[in-house]
Amino acid sequence: MGTGASLDVYRLLRTVIVRLTEALDYLRTILAHKFFIFRDYLRESTKAGMRHVVCY
């Protein structure tokens, strides 16, 4: 187990950490996007519901 092997392990770990961070950012972006769409849908349906209530 020379210094080269430990350097490879360090490099591998760093790569894995970077990939995980990228994957988490990607997931967070997708979830945030879906959440905003859902929130807008809720807002619109609430407005429509209020209009419906006001009409009657």
What is the straight-line distance between the termini? Answer: 80 Å
By DSSP (H or I, 4+ residues per run), the number of helices equals 1
Please trace the helix and strand order, writing H or E for each element: H
- Stretches with pLDDT under 50, minimum 5 residues: none
What is the radius of gyration computed over CA atoms, rounded to a whole number of angstroms?
24 Å
The best one-word shape is rod-shaped
Mean pLDDT: 85
Structural class comes to mainly alpha
Per-chain topology:
Blueprint: H1 3-55
Question: How would you sum up this structure, described in words?
Answer:
The chain is mainly alpha-helical. It has one helix and no strands.
Descriptive key words:
mainly alpha, single chain, 56 residues, rod-shaped
Question: How would you sum up this structure in a few lines?
Answer:
The protein is mostly helical and 56 residues long. The protein is built from 1 helix and no strands.
